[in-house]
Amino acid sequence: MNIDMIRAAAKRLEGHARRTPLLSSPFLDEIAGRKLLVKAECLQHTGSFKFRGGWSAVSNLSDNELKTGVIAFSSGNHAQGVALAAREHGAPAVIVMPSNAPEVKIENTRALGAEVVLYDRENESREEIGEALSRKRGLTLIRPFDEPQVIAGQGTCGLEIVADAGVTEADVLVCCGGGGLTGGIALALAAEAPGMTVRPCEPEGFDDVTRSLLSGQREKNDSESGSICDAILTPSPGEITFPILKEHCGPGIVVTEDECLRAMGLAFERLRIVVEPGGAAALAGALFHGNELGHDTVIAVATGGNVDKEVFQRALETLA
Amino acid sequence: MNIDMIRAAAKRLEGHARRTPLLSSPFLDEIAGRKLLVKAECLQHTGSFKFRGGWSAVSNLSDNELKTGVIAFSSGNHAQGVALAAREHGAPAVIVMPSNAPEVKIENTRALGAEVVLYDRENESREEIGEALSRKRGLTLIRPFDEPQVIAGQGTCGLEIVADAGVTEADVLVCCGGGGLTGGIALALAAEAPGMTVRPCEPEGFDDVTRSLLSGQREKNDSESGSICDAILTPSPGEITFPILKEHCGPGIVVTEDECLRAMGLAFERLRIVVEPGGAAALAGALFHGNELGHDTVIAVATGGNVDKEVFQRALETLA
């Protein structure tokens, strides 16, 4: 993994991925106690940054690989990102999803032309199911984070942050599951804006990356479900991503579910964007964990916006 | 009014107004029956396109005029646009607002440093109150739409549509109150993309522009309140704006409140943006009035996103 792979991915993504805006509000600056910029990846195609990695990986395949098709396992956002990228390349896509993923994500993945295979998150291994199907049907497996071309695609988000932020020093808060986006952005910033520090943000009870950064080795979560932050519930940092995180990231920030819901409410009210709970962890860190930050500017990546209306209503209820 | 004024306004706005993205979703294309692009002006500073006109007008004032200050009358979005533009120019701002405007808009205007004067929408004339205060305190009145520099500022939204749309022929649907944005965009398109036709969109019962375009003269609405589309409830098209609309626009499109709520729900689900009822009229036209359109591409301007959570919850309830 290196910066050249990210720059090459940026070229492949040009004209296909959306260059998402950096939003701000004087009202949010006041709550954060500093300048706050929000990278609105919820406005990316399929509603999350995952389209970047999906496009990066699919666009790197040979014609034969495209013809046979791809397979991905995902809690939802990676699924949609890969499904749309595959469809736009004319490649078949099989997606292995947990049966308890938000219904809107399952439906959307099917509507994007993918074949969806459901599994039980508590008792089955998506890795095993994905790899078995991949072998049986000759499909190219596109891993959600431990995959160099996926990390390279996610890193393009970091290049855009550097180009658009207007500052050279900042805490850059990233909602962190397996570390693909966090690692990709960390590599981009290390090469182009070394005064910016990436800070992984995780929900309480699922803080494997934060604990791993403290202990220096890959720690595991006790569970893989049981949080509204479904998009970022991965068991532990990746084999490829963890060394990147360890080398380049500052300490993790652990936020509560309630802070995520309040951040979603404020994003609705002040930025007029829709953010899902797992996609709001970084914004929650920026708004409510200022004492853990080291710079006058904080940049939070709002990683996704695929949320059921019932959960969004809970976020609205946090508003005065 | 001419295209040069719009181009000059675009220069003054550069680096101050946000260049809002054109969003899309394959799911919305399917409902619309054609390619649908959404200009997300709800992501503009202060949550609506009105910041463009406010900045354009305020940035055109002399140092003396800035020092004395400005006054505006507005149902809310123009108020916030002028308030922020004034604050960023170091100019005092007085805003005359209807007492039944959404509370969030009144609060936001105050929080942006403006002095708010409330009036009764049914029994008092905001024009008279605004003009009296303007005379008494020497404030420069910035009218919400019948003001050349405001129209020029709103027209910059049209220049961006032309630059970013990737097509030369389209119906361009614009939520229409007094016609400042609609007229500004119409002038921009007439000069730069004559194959695009502006179509004003209005809520049922407040279709003064649609009726005026049919009769050829400025028609009035029976009431100035009583719709959730508060942002676009103006009594009649403007003296300056109507001749522009008459020369350049296609027929108006009249949408129901229910269609606006459904469009808000779909914008939440498919574009992950927050749109207010009046700001959703154009999207409602694009999604549900396809038989009134003439091109393979429809562009809808989502003009604003300042909405109370109670009204937004009604929009969420329209989703399956």
TrEMBL record, chains A, B:
* Cofactor field: Mg(2+); pyridoxal 5'-phosphate; Ca(2+); Mn(2+)
Q: Name one Pfam family in it.
A: PALP
Matching entries from SUPFAM superfamilies are given as:
Tryptophan synthase beta subunit-like PLP-dependent enzymes
Q: Kindly indicate whether the keyword Lyase belongs to this entry.
A: yes
Bilayer-crossing residues are none
Q: Which InterPro entries match?
A: Ser/Thr_deHydtase_PyrdxlP-BS, TrpB-like_PALP, TrpB-like_PALP_sf
Task: Recite the UniProt keywords alphabetically.
Answer: Lyase, Magnesium, Pyridoxal phosphate
Which GO molecular function annotation, any one, does this entry have? pyridoxal phosphate binding
Q: Biological process GO annotation list?
A: D-serine biosynthetic process
| Coiled-coil stretches | none
So which domain of life are we looking at?
Bacteria
Q: Any idea where the Tryptophan synthase beta chain-like PALP domain is? A: 15-304
Q: Which family does it belong to?
A: Belongs to the serine/threonine dehydratase family.
**Name recorded for this polypeptide:** Threonine dehydratase
Q: Which organism is it from?
A: Cognatiyoonia sediminum
> In the record, what lineage is assigned to the organism producing the protein?
Bacteria, Pseudomonadati, Pseudomonadota, Alphaproteobacteria, Rhodobacterales
